[in-house]
Predict the structure.
Amino acid sequence: MDKIKIGVVTTSDRASQGIYKDISGIAIMDTMKEYLLNECEYEYRCIPDEQPIIETTLIQLAREHNCDLIVTTGGTGPAPRDVTTEATENVCSKLLPGFGEQMRAVSLQYVPTAILSRQTAGICNGSLIINLPGKPKSIRECLDAVFPAVPYCIDLIGGSYMEANEEIIKIFRPKVK
């Protein structure tokens, strides 16, 4: 079974300064541990909401660390310092807007402010990057909605083969004839 490399990036001025603990990044790793049967190696970063730092971090995780998947949390709202979406768009060669559309659709079932969210996803140097919201409850709701397509996307871009715990999350791969 392939080992999976997952980048986890929390963008938060306060968490990166140690003002509060980063529970969002931990929530992503905990969710991946539930979803995946593969051994996972995590490249974790907690960085400030600075677009150049976010871009550099995403590029390093994709190019130098060869992460199959990079999941960000935070910085996807409309506030002036919310720049994770712009950073992701700048480093990706292809955008996958369906991820953001699905996450917003699911989040709208819980809160009307989901329309303010700007989550997106894209491909950077063979890594799938997915932007998630900042709250652990919202992270799980969004991952539950989009993760069924993640392993096949990673197959298509040449990443490691992900095997999911079907008792927790049902993934989809087309049947081979």
User: Anything to note?
Assistant: The longest helix spans residues 51-64.
